Amino acid sequence: MPFKKLHPSIKEVLKQKEIVIPTDFQKSSIPVIKSGKNVFCNASNNQGKTTTLIMTIMHKLKCEEVGNIPRALVLVENNDKALDLYNTFTTFTKYTPLRVYVANEKEHVDLLKSEIFEGVDILIATPQIVSKLLLLYGVNLSELKLLSIDDAEFLSQTNAYNAVLSITQSISKCQYVLYSNKLNPNLKRLESYFMEHATHVNV
Description:
Number of domains: 1
CATH superfamily: P-loop containing nucleotide triphosphate hydrolases
CATH class: Alpha Beta
Shape: globular
Strand order of the largest sheet: 3-4-2-5-6-1-7
CATH topology: Rossmann fold
Helix content: 25-40%
Strand content: 5-15%
CATH architecture: 3-Layer(aba) Sandwich
Structural class: alpha/beta
Order of helices and strands: HHEHEHEHEHEHEHE
């Protein structure tokens, strides 16, 4: 069972949330993501994609606070989704040392820079905000271990797509996991960029 092989802190949260049985998607995706491969994760709604995203990031980072720069990055479509995901994330991480930070685009970029410099393990943001921070030397991605994109269909928007390509070009080595309902041609094109040799999980 996928849940049995997750970090003990994650299993404790699942117990508190009374999440006992993994979905078909979680059974298929969690072992593949844990293997370190790049993965396209495709499943319909209510299959636990967001929960999987959170759990696999926590497991990858061993539920530990390390250093000062992000080791996981989650890209989302817009600011509202970033804030929603942050709120969900913190229900899982609140009993761990993991530092989760959302780059709220309504805040001044200088404030975002200063808060990120204080120390972050997991950064949640839109591609546009991350691109801006990179240009202003406001975030260092040299220690990034995992980049996840939630509801990746939004990459059909040219600005977001180009921003993601720009971000990945500044990363030397990293695991990439994309979550979506279906693998559309726009997402499949990413195999020519940073999703080379990606495994496909379809439920």
